[in-house]
Design brief:
The complex is a heterodimer of chains A (404) and B (287). Chain A is an alpha/beta fold and 404 residues long. In chain A, 39% of the residues lie in helices and 21% in strands. Chain A is globular and about 65 Å long. In chain B, helix 2 (39-56) packs across helix 9 (216-230). The chains are: A alpha/beta (404), B mainly alpha (287).
Chain lengths: 404, 287
């Protein structure tokens, strides 16, 4: 019995000695990633960005705040690309894994349910994977988005079209999901304001496999510009079928899918396709905090063995923004860090980051700008070039799309 | 008007390929009352077979047909021994569960190897134009090949000894056994053919559209719809069901907002089920 007391006392002493040191030296960041299911490619890109930031910060000695250095520890689960899993897993991240801060899952569909949990428990969540505005219009206090939100995705494409062909006839054909619908609803309004004619405006079921009849309908509508798509295989299939069926579009903007390098596999069908992008390798902002684009791209390639893309860059930026806020706050206290995030106004290699602070849009990104990239032939190889805005472009736009 | 005609023709072309896929599903069901839930994944396996041969090895895409056919057959026979053999004659739920679990494993392994990234096989065949509308060459050739393969299956089932044995087992397994047909071997061969058909249709679809490791779900759902339209267990009906589905998609799309296509398709589907519980093209002894 005596030995038991001794043991217990020793254990308690060890625990007392160990706990504060651990708690003070580490911050735990929790998030879910889609290791399986349809969002796997994009989610993996975002996760690489998160992990790259963690490795860089820890290698540099951690986040410095209030005279202490905090190493970053990740806790993560596979959400299987399913919205229903997200709420359970974020609850677990908060209650069982004691996450201090949260990062978003990938996609609007998964981020929206996650924000309900983060807000309920008063945890800061920084979002790089869900561009839909709705969760930011419900008075959330601890939610912040580093990327440009859905309603601005295609504004560059509309502006560019207005410049190249004010008489353009637009077909808006998009996936029936919250993100794509939000993007295209905004684009339809922007097109109207720009005086462009919308001749077709329809959504398709995400399970559509053959777009043949839809492409024929686009041809029948006499459209010469296409804006739409959705997430991944649908966007690629649309591009391929518009090419195979010789729809002769002079302009094509497709969401998400063409931002992935694998889109180049489509060969001639990829040529001329434009994609709104949160970030491209050619973008060159002068950062006030964190690495430059060149430093980021090289280090990312060396350590992660993958080419830096916009999901990786936005994921990394989430970390950079959290780090900046903690350092500014000099504390890891949620309220203090949230206040620092509200005051954030910095240039990073990813672009400018500043959050809306009014109750109706709190946490929405207001400073970052998207670019428009186009698949073009460079030295006999297909690759993306930034074509809009014009002061950031790396190549002139190809208008109309010409087959080579 | 030309646009409507173009959509209908395109729908029929693609429908033939859907029909071929559904034939694989319905053949297995017809013979042994087993629903093969690896069907979608086997379609995707055909796509990846095509990708491996055509893109990685640089062979002309259509040369992938024989290897995919043979590979599919062998995979099917293996599937029979692993997941189906002990389930034949048991409640259908058993084989549903066993093929479902095999499917989960295959998709998991596939995701591990390839991720859910996009794959595309570039097929450049001259198409046929009708006014402003174009039928891509690959669609036409895929439809022709699907029809030829379906016809060969019909000839096989009705004109060869083995084919007749397959039909005999479908009709009455005990009686077939009594007259000396090695039913276990016939069942294994049937699953082999069913999976080979799934693989080949996947290979043909792979020449039309880009795909990912998860594309199978969509085509499996299509196969179920087509199979029910055509009458469960009736391969020729499945082909007709595929054509009917393609025709419907082509005919509906020009007239209603695209998002309504599926709704109308499934409303018609339910109506068909009410009017013809056995499927539109079903008849007794179809096998």
């Amino acid at each position: 019995m005596k030995r038991l007391y001794l043991l217990a006392a020793a254990a308690a002493a060890v625990a007392l000695a160990a706990t504060p040191a651990l708690a003070e030296d580490t911050i735990t960041v929790g998030f879910t990633a889609s290791l399986t299911g349809p969002l796997n490619v994009d989610s993996a890109g975002q996760q690489r960005g998160y992990e790259f930031w963690r490795d860089e910060v820890n290698a540099a000695g951690g986040i410095k705040a209030g005279g202490k250095s905090y190493k970053v520890k990740f806790v993560t689960y596979d959400d299987q690309s399913v919205g229903g899993r997200v709420q359970q897993l974020y609850t677990r991240l908060i209650n069982q894994d004691k996450a201090d801060f949260l990062f978003s899952p990938y996609s609007s569909g998964l981020t929206a349910p996650a924000t309900v949990i983060s807000e309920q428990y008063g945890k800061i969540m920084i979002d790089s994977g869900g561009a839909e505005e709705k969760p930011f219009e419900t008075g959330n206090k601890y939610l912040f988005m580093v990327i440009t939100s859905a309603s601005h995705y295609l504004s560059g494409a509309v502006e560019a079209l207005k410049k190249y062909n004010p008489q353009a006839k637009l077909a808006l054909v998009y996936s029936d999901d919250p993100f794509s619908k939000a993007v295209l609803a905004a684009a339809a309004k922007q097109a109207k304001d720009a005086g462009l004619e919308v001749v077709m405006n329809e959504s398709y079921s995400p399970s559509t496999t053959d777009f043949g009849p839809i492409v024929n309908k686009i041809v029948s509508s006499n459209a010469d510009a296409f804006l739409g798509g959705g997430h991944y295989s649908d966007g690629a299939t649309l591009a391929r079928q518009m090419h195979d069926q010789k729809a002769n579009m002079k302009w094509i903007s497709i969401l998400v899918a063409p931002a992935d390098d694998k889109f180049g596999e489509l060969g001639p069908a990829a040529l001329g396709v434009t994609v709104p992008s949160q970030w491209e390798l050619q973008v060159n902002y002068t950062p006030q905090f964190g690495p430059t684009t060149a430093q980021f791209a090289k280090a990312f390639q060396d350590k992660m063995h993958a080419k830096a893309d916009y999901h990786g860059a936005s994921g990394y930026t989430v970390g950079v923004v959290l780090q900046h806020a903690i350092e500014q706050a000099g504390s890891i206290d949620t309220e203090k860090v949230a206040a620092a995030l509200n005051a954030t106004d910095i240039a990073t290699f990813f672009g400018h980051v500043k959050f809306a602070t009014d109750a109706g849009h709190h946490g929405l990104q207001v400073a970052h700008q998207m670019v428009l990239a186009q698949w073009q032939m460079v030295d006999g190889k297909l690759g993306r070039q930034v074509i809009w805005p014009e002061d950031a472009r790396s190549a002139p736009a190809m208008y109309p799309i010409k087959q080579q | 008007m030309l646009g409507v005609l173009a959509s209908i023709i395109d729908g029929v072309l693609v429908g033939l390929v859907y029909g071929l896929a559904a034939m694989g599903l319905t053949l297995i069901w017809g013979v042994m009352d087993v629903i093969n839930l690896t069907h979608g994944t086997m379609i995707v396996a055909g796509m990846f077979g095509l990708y491996g041969l055509a893109t990685a090895l640089g062979a002309p895409p259509y040369l992938a047909l024989p290897p995919v056919l043979i590979g599919g057959f062998l995979a099917g026979v293996a599937l029979y021994w692993v997941a189906v053999h002990r389930m034949v004659g048991r409640p259908p739920l058993m084989s549903l569960l066993s093929t479902f679990s095999i499917n989960l494993m295959l998709v998991g392994i596939g995701t591990g190897i390839w991720g859910t990234a996009l794959f595309n096989v570039d097929v450049s065949l001259p198409g046929i134009s009708m006014g402003r509308y174009t039928f891509p060459g690959a669609h036409i050739l895929a439809a022709i090949l699907a029809a030829v393969i379906a016809a060969s299956l019909y000839v096989f089932l009705h004109r060869t000894r083995l084919g007749k044995a397959v039909r005999a087992v479908a009709n009455n397994r005990e009686a077939a056994e009594l007259v000396g047909i090695p039913t276990t071997r016939v069942l294994a061969i049937t699953v082999g053919f069913g999976v080979a058909l799934a693989g080949v249709s996947g290979m043909l679809i792979g020449t039309l559209f880009p795909f990912t490791i998860l594309s199978g779900d969509g085509y499996q759902l299509k196969s179920f719809v087509v199979t029910v339209l055509g009458g469960f267990g009736n391969p020729l009906g499945a082909l007709m069901g595929g054509v009917a589905l393609g025709l419907l998609e082509g005919a509906i799309t020009p007239f209603v907002p695209v998002s309504w296509t599926l709704v109308i398709e499934f409303v018609l589907f339910v109506l068909v089920l009410i009017a013809f519980p056995g499927g539109v093209f079903s008849r007794r002894g179809a096998m």
